[in-house]
Amino acid sequence: MIHDSVIGCVGSTPMVRLNRCFPEPDVEVLAKLEMLNPGGSMKDRPARFIIEQGLADGTLRPGMRLVESTSGNLGIALAMTADLHGLSFTAVVDPKTSPTNLRLLELFGADVEMVTDRDAAGGYLHTRVQRARELVDSLPNATQINQYANELNWRAYHETAGEEILNAVDGPLDYLVAAVSTTGSIQGIARRLREDHPNLKVVAVDAVGSVIFGSPAGPRQIPGFGASRVPEIYDPAEIDDVLHVADAESAAGCRRLLATEKVFAGGSSGAVIAGVEHLISRLEGPARIVTVLPDRGERYLDLVYDDEWVANLPDPWQQPEAAVKP
Question: Secretion signal: which residues (predicted)?
Answer without folding.
Answer: none
